[in-house]
Amino acid sequence: MPHAAIDVHTHILPPGWDDWAARYGVSGWPSCRLHDACNATIYLGEKEFRKIDERSFAPARRIADMDAERIGLQMISPVPVMFCYWGPAQATDAFARMQNDFIAGVVREHPGRFVGAGTVALQDAALAVRELERLKSLGFPAVEIGAHVNGRDFDDPQLFDFFAAAQQLDMAVFVHPQGPSIGQERMGQYYLPFMVGYPSDSALAAARLILGGVLQRLPRLRICFAHGGGSFPAVLGRLDHGHRVRPEAKRFIAEPPAHYARSLYFDTLTHDARLLAFLLEKFGSERIMIGSDYPFDMGVEHPLAQLDGVGLTPADAENITHLTARRFLRLS
């Protein structure tokens, strides 16, 4: 490969941190309990959330896997359960800074292998903007956010200042859905929140970002939706039809939704080569980047294998493997 590939969708967390429940007097905070040098469990309060191994917290292991998969650079971002938008804003802000400082250290200690996407206390726009400014000063090219903020959607006026600051600071925004997902009360079995809820959350987030006029007001905002945009690409035609026939869909935007959707970015994590080919046809390779969800089981073990059978031109392959990510993240 003439240029090393870039994976924009991976997650990392520190191997441990202070007891946030004891510090702030609120229960339910995530914790990471190490069992040995290679294994740990994430807890939410006293409830087990996920077993993890060293891939989640050990940069040396990640680099070995990257080399094996021909990935030159990873964008490392927090595990979505660590967003903690439900918490007191000041406590979440401190929790975000702890994670961001860890990510900054990993990037600093392994030059050329990682770039960071930080997290912010998005339930408080002023705190979120302040941390976004600090991320910029630390050299982060991006920030990762959830697909909603305690049920508040991207067209909520209280979130506009955050998106405006991201545009002003020229910071990329990476959207990753998080719990509770849409329809959570109907998804108690079969791991459905992660398989159906997350894609639906992404579709709703993108739809409200567009229909609410956020992208019309902020045309230079760079925003990427994980998991190939979830269900959004499949409903875009229906959104366009609704804009033609329904006055509600015209309230804040002058052009059809597809006009604004062309400014969005997506990763490759669709688990379906035909759907990835549809993304390519609909949005072009200039808007698609490698994403793996490393190191979790709903991701893929071989990031570049996602491109097999898609029918890429050499130019498309160059874009998807690294050039689009370089433009999205403003990398030299």
What does the model show?
It is a single chain. This protein is of the alpha/beta class. The protein has a single domain, classed as TIM Barrel. The chain is 40% helix and 16% strand. The strands form 2 sheets. An 8-stranded parallel β-sheet has the order 1-5-6-7-8-9-10-11. It has a 3-stranded antiparallel β-sheet with strand order 2-3-4, with no helix packed on it. Strand 3 and strand 4 form a beta hairpin. Helix 3 runs parallel beside helix 4. The longest helix is centred in the N-terminal third of the chain and has 21 residues. The radius of gyration is 19 Å and the shape is globular. The two termini are 19 Å apart. The mean pLDDT is 96.
Topology:
Elements: E1 5-11, H1 20-24, E2 30-34, E3 39-44, E4 47-53, H2 59-68, E5 71-77, H3 89-109, E6 114-118, H4 125-137, E7 142-145, H5 157-169, E8 172-175, H6 192-211, H7 214-217, E9 223-225, H8 232-245, H9 257-261, E10 265-267, H10 273-283, E11 288-289, H11 314-329
Parallel strand pairs: 1-5, 5-6, 6-7, 7-8, 8-9, 9-10, 10-11
Antiparallel strand pairs: 2-3, 3-4
Helix pairs in contact: 3-4, 4-5, 6-8
Task: Tag the structure with descriptive keywords.
40% helix; three-stranded antiparallel β-sheet; 11 strands; eight-stranded parallel β-sheet; TIM Barrel; 332 residues; alpha/beta
